[in-house]
Amino acid sequence: MNSSAAPTSFPLYATKRPKLALIAEGGGQRGIFTAGVLDAWLEAGYDPFDMFIGTSAGSQNLTSFLARQKGYAKRLIRGLSRHKRFFQLGRGLMGKHIVDLDWYFEKTKEANRILDFKAAKESLGERELLITATNSRDRKPYFLSPKGSGNQWRELLKASSALPFLYKQGVKLTTEYNAVSVSENKANTLPQAQPESDYYLDGGLGAPLPVREAYERGARKIVVIRTGDVNFQAQSAWLHKLKSLVCATGHCPKTINYLVQHEQAYQQELAFIANPPADVEIIQIFAGTKLHSKLLGSADSDLRHDYKVGVMAGRLYLMQQLAPKPAPLNVDKRNNIPDVASALHSASAIAQNEQHKLSA
User: Fold this and answer.
1) Per-residue pLDDT at 346
2) Catalytic choice (39, 50, 202, 306)
3) HSE-CB of 352 using CA atoms within 13 angstroms
4) Residue 202 known to be catalytic
């Protein structure tokens, strides 16, 4: 898929409307649903957002969206993430990365897979993109801004996607990379004791669904693309049982602690979404049914299915957001009775027309 510069039809609004944020959840190969949603928006020339926050696969999806590379994320998920070089359990026994992110991101430098960071930077403009990553030293989430070169941006994406155990200790970022990060306590600069470099892991461990972060940064309308189903709660009784058993022996692997931290952070965000402040609107985009794909090891047919579901969800969102408001009801002025039959006929015609567009 060839990269393309941002078309002039994309509206980069500077109005007095509420600050609008887009959040893309992680989820490994399930991110192909997000790719479908964003491709539907690219097709329609839709990008009114002021702020973007991506976690893990979500950060990769947002980058290709900003680069205006329709179909790019789908192609990498169906191609590179299913390649035998990318995921091999046996490598863990030899002390190597089970998931080879180094190889994966090196492939994005090849001519037929180039991720167009220049176009992404141009379309981003003065807007804000935050890539989440979890510091392995303090285990806090950091929200990193790609301010430098394409190589710096690529390293942030890698760090945001580096699951513990699967990618060993994480991605080493120097102060050159993380000097613009903002930690959970909203400090504008890193603590003075910050070492020259730290290892960073998957952003989903510390900030799996950073809705509160968007709100605290001023967003008053927040759109969240979810890769779990509507009933997903991120609660695993077996994980907590395993933690109690293993840690009782005096050996408590960091991986278990990270997973427990992920669940706790996820629950806190779900609680915020369920009971948000009165001055914010939160819109969640779900698949509607449980996605067929998995974190890793998905069949290509499942990935194709979930991408199509994402495209449909993206188009449905556009229908709901961009459809003109219905005309006022005709009223019988003598009896002040609305012409309900006329209204129902108009609504039916609109619904049939939009359904035809979706199925085309």
Assistant:
1) 38
2) 202
3) 6
4) yes
DSSP 200: E
Tokens of 119: 């176009």
Give Cα 108 to chain centroid, integer Å.
19
Q: How many CB atoms lie within 10 A of CB 294?
A: 14
Continuous segment of H or E residues that includes residue 278: none
Which two three-digit tokens encode residue 252? Answer: 């408590």
Which strand (E) or helix (H) includes residue 202? strand 197-202
In whole angstroms, what is the distance from residue 203 CA to residue 262 CA?
9
What is the structure's pLDDT at 192? 38
In which residue are the tokens 């950060």 written? 59
Q: CA-to-CA distance for 338 and 96, rounded, in angstroms?
A: 71
Beta strand spans in 164-251 (E): 171-174, 182-183, 197-202, 221-225
Token representation of residue 224: 């969240």
132, 160, 168, 289 from 199: Cα distances, Å: 13, 11, 10, 36
Of 49, 105, 71, the C-alpha closest to 225 is 49
Residue 50 catalytic?
A: no
Range 31-40 burial, b when 16+ CB lie within 10 A, else e? bbbbbbbbbb
Average pLDDT by stretches of 10, the chain with 360 residues: 37 62 94 97 97 96 97 95 84 73 92 93 95 89 86 93 81 64 42 62 89 96 88 51 49 63 85 95 91 92 96 95 65 40 38 44
- The one catalytic residue in 3, 39, 56, 181 is 56
DSSP 172: E
